[in-house]
Specification:
The complex is a heterodimer of chains A (358) and B (156). Chain A is mostly helical and 358 residues long. Chain A has 15 helices and no strands. Chain A starts with a helix and ends with a helix. The mean pLDDT of chain A is 83. By secondary structure, chain B is of the alpha+beta class. Classes of the chains: A mainly alpha (358), B alpha+beta (156).
């Protein structure tokens, strides 16, 4: 049966047989880099289209339906439009930082792709501190946003960037704590270990109520970290025009836009790995027949299905909930999410020590 | 009790958010009724009093009811209408004032309906057309009386 694991292994074997090991490694780097860039482009197109359709359906509209079959090519047309537009740099801007900022945001998103397993044995880099790496690198993106806001030489951009800084720094706490509560159960930061520990059931089922609470807290916190509505204070279309990317146009704007959607994909895949078992099929206790049927569905489909389910949930949030004010946003984090997740971590530790989880 | 209020707050917040999500989830899964219209294919029937642009009414004999009194021109707040008059010589040799050209600047018009109210003979009215965009601005300056038209008999 062809799987991503077999494909990558056979490519690796062929490259090592044809070239010497150094050149083979370099070629593998190139292949991986190109795949990541392709994945980014495809994700951007698909997720923007999905967002527009989901929002339309939730608001009793039709959504894009003119370009291509049922509007499928709408995002391609939008990308073409952005590609031919002029990437303007304002006169008063700090030119170097202004042009660097979108790439910082993009590169951070690319770096986080490294430890994500898209299917069984299909992972770029299974480093032993995978989850720590993800949480550490993801906070670098705030530098890109601050850079963009500061370099634009625009009040609104700066305000948006400052809000974004406050928001991401505070919400990282509760996201981190809810990640830790799963680490308490697995006892390992390595992503392959975390997934392996969910062979007999996903943590959201095995971990009882503390796992569900930390899942909810995680979803809320990552929605805030990706600067999406109802936490879109960094962009704040209604107050700050577009926040930190007000002054950007053309492809540089498209990079910010793309990074937003790729970041959603990344945080949702982290959520899927930690709580929903990554590429692991749905296994229930010792129902042998059921588990066997579930094993027939390829692991890549399991992973993508879970990730897109979480993305749908986050889109559902966006098109349902009212926006928060900046003080309400920080209240929510420091007065509600942080105490709840601290208490939840304590509860989870008790569960783990007493061995109450399945 | 502080802690009871706190838990009540959280419970109330989660409950109300879930109520909202249930509503949008219902809309998402029951995708039948659409509140928007597919504009170029399906056009809305506009209300009778919709003000799209000023038109002059002509009957089947290519006759209108405009006497050239310029009441509309005077009523217009921003000089949208310009009436150029001429003098017709009737068979008896009497001179009679009539319109030569009814110039209407659509680009200046605010659709305020004052000209229609001012008209003593109901020669002009508001039409329901609204797709006025053109590539050349000069196309928006219109002549409302059709070529060769004349005033209907008996309209003074």
């Amino acid at each position: 049966m062809p799987s991503f694991e077999n494909i990558t292994n056979s490519i690796n074997a062929w490259l090592n047989n044809t070239f010497n090991s150094t050149i083979a490694l370099l070629l593998e780097f190139v292949i991986v880099g190109l795949s990541v860039i392709t994945l980014f482009a495809v994700l951007g197109l698909v997720l923007v289209f999905m967002e527009r359709k989901v929002s339309a359906y939730m608001q009793i509209r039709l959504g894009p339906n003119r370009v291509g079959f049922k509007g499928m090519l709408q995002t391609v047309a939008d990308t073409l439009k952005l590609a031919v537009k002029e990437g303007l740099t304002p006169d008063g801007a700090d030119k170097f930082l202004f042009n660097l900022a979108p790439f910082v945001v993009m590169i951070v998103a690319m770096l986080i792709m490294a430890p994500i397993p898209f299917a069984k044995g299909f992972q770029m880099w299974d480093l032993n501190i995978g989850v720590l790496y993800v949480t550490a690198v993801s906070s670098v993106s705030v530098i890109g946003i601050l850079m963009a806001g500061w370099a634009s030489n625009n009040k609104y951009s700066l305000l948006g960037a400052m809000r974004s800084g406050a928001q991401i720094v505070s919400y990282e706490l509760s996201a981190g704590l809810s990640v830790i509560s799963i680490i308490v159960l697995t006892g390992s930061l390595q992503i392959s270990d975390i997934i392996e520990s969910q062979r007999d059931g996903w943590w959201i089922f095995k971990g009882h109520i503390p796992a569900i609470i930390s899942f909810v807290v995680f979803i809320i916190a990552v929605t805030a970290e990706t600067n999406r509505a109802p936490f879109d204070l960094a962009e704040a279309e209604s107050e700050l025009t577009a926040g930190f990317h007000t002054e950007y146009s053309g492809m540089k704007f498209a990079l910010f836009f793309l990074a937003e959607y790729v970041n959603i994909f990344i945080v949702c895949s982290i959520g899927a790995i930690l709580f929903l078992g990554g590429w692991m099929p749905l296994h229930i206790g010792n129902w042998e027949g059921f588990n066997h049927v579930m094993d027939y569905i390829p692991s890549s489909i399991w992973f993508m299905g879970k990730v897109f389910f979480l993305i749908f949930v986050i889109m559902w949030f966006r098109w349902t909930f009212p926006r928060l004010r900046i003080d309400q946003l920080l209240n929510l984090e420091w007065k509600y999410l942080l105490p709840i997740s601290l208490f939840n971590l304590l509860l989870m530790t008790v569960v783990a020590i007493e061995g109450w989880h399945f | 009790m502080f802690i009871v209020d706190y838990i009540k707050d959280v419970y109330g917040a989660v409950k109300s958010l879930l109520t909202g999500m249930k509503r949008t989830g219902y809309y998402f899964t029951h995708h039948k009724e659409i509140i928007t219209q597919q504009y170029p294919e399906v056009k809305q029937t506009l209300p009778e009093r919709f003000r799209g642009e000023v038109v002059m009414l002509h009957d089947e004999n290519n006759e209108h009811a405009c006497t050239g009194c310029t009441a509309c021109e005077l009523a217009c707040p921003n000089a949208t209408i310009k009436i150029i008059t001429k003098f017709d010589i009737s068979p008896e040799g009497k001179k009679k004032k009539a319109i030569d050209t009814f110039v209407y600047h659509l680009e200046l018009c605010t659709m305020c309906n004052l000209c229609i109210e001012a008209c003593p003979t109901d020669a002009i009215k508001m039409a329901q057309t609204f797709e006025h965009s053109v590539f050349d601005r000069s196309l928006l300056t219109k002549k409302l009386n059709k070529p060769g038209s004349k005033i209907r008999e008996g309209v003074e």
